[in-house]
Design goal:
two-stranded antiparallel ribbon; alpha/beta; Spore Coat Polysaccharide Biosynthesis Protein SpsA, Chain A; five-stranded mixed beta sheet
């Protein structure tokens, strides 16, 4: 899809698996980890708006770290307790900015600094009306099915599964509709995506 694009950069995680501090603020070649994702998103052709979703209590820190030249294309909003809550906050912020339902939206995890502008552009370009796009990578590890007690019961064919990456893409209207539908089920984390073949 050529034309304007928007993005949600999810940076509100708690870094629970890190043994030290907040991984998003670790210096990586002169920039905090999260800035690599933001700076790359800002280079995607057609990128009109990026909403950075930050943890409660850190909005000012993130706001101050935005690149000066991009401040009119960036905003910082407060995220939630879970990733899905933060995505909802980002989609709500894009909606409040008055962006049209048809605009493609890239949802990217700030903890993934190595995603290239080429990947982001290809994900956006692959988006078709009414669909979603997500990049995947093949798995190389051996996969096993386990029972409720944790006992291995069978091998799994790794050719049938892939590891999901970000950015994920859908139109703003499709994302909002999926969120609204999932709220009717009781929780946004239960959103199901149907993949067209």
């Amino acid at each position: 899809m050529a034309g304007p694009i928007a993005a949600v950069l999810v940076a509100a995680g708690q870094s629970r698996r890190m043994a030290f501090g907040d991984k998003l603020w670790i210096d990586l070649w002169g920039r905090p980890v999260w800035r690599w994702g933001l700076d790359t998103l800002l280079t995607v052709p057609g990128m009109t708006q990026v909403v950075v979703v930050a943890p409660a209590g850190a909005l000012e820190r993130f706001q101050q770290a935005l690149p000066e030249a991009a401040r009119e294309r960036c905003s910082v909003v407060e995220g939630g307790a879970e990733r899905v809550d933060s995505v909802v906050a980002g989609i709500s912020a894009l909606t409040a900015l008055g962006l049209p339902d048809e605009i493609p939206v890239l949802v990217h995890d700030a903890a993934r600094p190595a995603a290239s502008a080429d990947l982001m552009s290809r994900v956006a370009d692959a988006l078709q009306p009414g669909e979603g796009v997500i990049p995947v990578v093949p798995l190389h590890d051996a996969l096993k099915k386990v029972d409720a007690s944790g006992r291995v019961v069978a091998p799994m064919d790794r050719e049938a599964v892939s590891a999901a990456q970000t950015p994920q893409a859908a139109t703003l209207g499709a994302l909002r509709a999926a969120i609204e539908e999932s709220m009717a089920w009781g929780r946004p984390s239960r959103v199901r995506w149907e993949i067209a073949s």
